[in-house]
């Protein structure tokens, strides 16, 4: 009971913070939103190092425990109670827990785990969550098996279970980020398509840098990327199958095509196409390869994004004289402008939950990443710098990634994550300058 | 010697004002190639750069790039051609008419202020504005292709208006033809 109450109040705090920003955004006068770095009560959790149940698994047990705790800590929602403060010791995964030992150090949830080698040589990881104050298990125990080399994924999967049980929302740890690695001087950058785990591990370059590559997006299944490449000499939309490495062009045309995005069912791709200098939005069915024009306007119409139900499109257009965000239906009808604040708005990205649209906003010489509801209300800015751009959502719609470019000759871009509430702004480690992130679905 | 000539041409470019046809001569002492001797012996002597191309300089890519100017500039978020840009493009068109075996790629660029997608579209608008103007001036459409680089290929790297104004540009790139 008590845990359920605490979890509810924890989520309420998160929503309340959201509400605060929105209250400010709806006040009279020019739109002026303070970035709210509000303090919430962190959720205390303890996880003694997992038990190594078979010989030779001590290192794996330690690594997996550490990675799970690191994942939880990175969310900015949990307080990890360190092992040095623990009174109780867990020596056997199946022994009853002495809840008083954990109550005494104010832990709400205790995580216990064990690592062993299965008969097939694979790692077997078991965990249990305990509600300390209710003195009971929090759900069933969970068991995952995987090869030794996949130990990080095992830890991520378990982290997703823990996050989900405690917050009631989907996790985002067993995911990957595709982005663009940038090399060379500012006036002559080489750009390589790159992929890594959500936490920066396992970086792989997917292209060699011969052609400029821009703005990749994951397919809904996570097994394909779609992006703009200069491989033909001018910007064209290509898709890359990550399973077989095949790169194919989406629409064979001498026109420039760019800013692609998969439909939620993965069957269509929406993108911008420029004919005689005029940029409109088109959709191509991937099985018939037929292009359908959606906007017909002398303005620049670009950066289309589908709503998660596939029925609406948000996009940016300068048809009003400045760049703003609009929504429309799949036929290009029912066009409605949703951004009305000071400055210009671009790169709308619909949240996987369907509630918010993330965007890039420029006011004078400052750029922000922000969110607003799909009807344009409750605008909230989450970041602010010389150049913040290109938001992408975690699959649970609670965290965003974007890139921030430092000014000057030696300046370059880096990836940042931030909560939907504007909290927990964190720079991600990448081996090189990094831009244009896209977050995969949960694997 | 070739380097010197290019340097002097770049000098013209930096001064923006079109340099006259006599820019292949320089009034100051120059390095004759025998060390660092730029001493008094040379003051007051007009030193000519010997260049076998000078007699038909007009028909060189260098003339197009540096004498006429291979690029025109734009105001923030604009794709309209200024009068200054039009004057340059009229000269470009004239040169292209008289060098009729050349083809060109018209590259549109934007400064770094703005999103990647918008700048790609803006670069395309700018290159199309130049293409249309050159077409009106009589350059055959089949000789021209366009490409937008958005903010991907800045010319100047600093992060203020002095560089941004140089980056909001369209560059007319001459494809070298055989024998040139």
Looking at this protein, list some descriptive labels:
heterodimer; A: 443 residues; mainly beta; 7-stranded mixed sheet; 4-stranded antiparallel sheet; 4 helices; 31 strands; 39% strand; elongated; B: 180 residues; alpha+beta; 60s Ribosomal Protein L30, Chain: A; 2 domains; 4-stranded mixed sheet; 6 strands; 37% helix; globular; disordered N terminus
Per CATH, which architecture of the largest domain in chain B? Answer: 2-Layer Sandwich
Structural class of chain A: mainly beta
**Poorly predicted runs of 5 or more residues of chain A:** 7-37
Radius of gyration of chain A: 23 Å
As an assembly, this protein is: heterodimer
Q: How would you sum up the major sheet of chain B? A: 4 strands, mixed
Q: Overall pLDDT of chain B, averaged?
A: 80
Overall pLDDT metric of chain A: 91
> Largest sheet of chain A, described in full?
7 strands, mixed
Tell me the CATH superfamily of the largest domain in chain B: OmpA-like domain
Task: Record the SSE blueprint.
The complex is a heterodimer of chains A (443) and B (180).
Chain A: H1 2-25, E1 43-46, E2 51-52, H2 58-74, E3 78-80, H3 99-103, E4 109-117, E5 123-131, E6 136-137, E7 142-146, H4 151-167, E8 176-183, E9 190-197, E10 204-205, E11 213-218, E12 224-229, E13 236-241, E14 247-249, E15 256-262, E16 268-275, E17 278-285, E18 291-293, E19 301-306, E20 312-317, E21 324-329, E22 336-337, E23 344-350, E24 356-363, E25 366-373, E26 380-381, E27 388-393, E28 399-405, E29 413-419, E30 426-427, E31 433-439
Parallel strand pairs in A: 1-3, 1-4, 2-4
Antiparallel strand pairs in A: 4-5, 5-6, 5-7, 8-9, 8-31, 9-10, 11-12, 12-13, 13-14, 15-16, 16-17, 17-18, 19-20, 20-21, 21-22, 23-24, 24-25, 25-26, 27-28, 28-29, 29-30
Chain B: H1 2-15, E1 25-26, E2 47-48, H2 61-69, E3 71-73, H3 83-98, E4 103-109, H4 116-136, E5 144-150, H5 161-167, E6 169-175
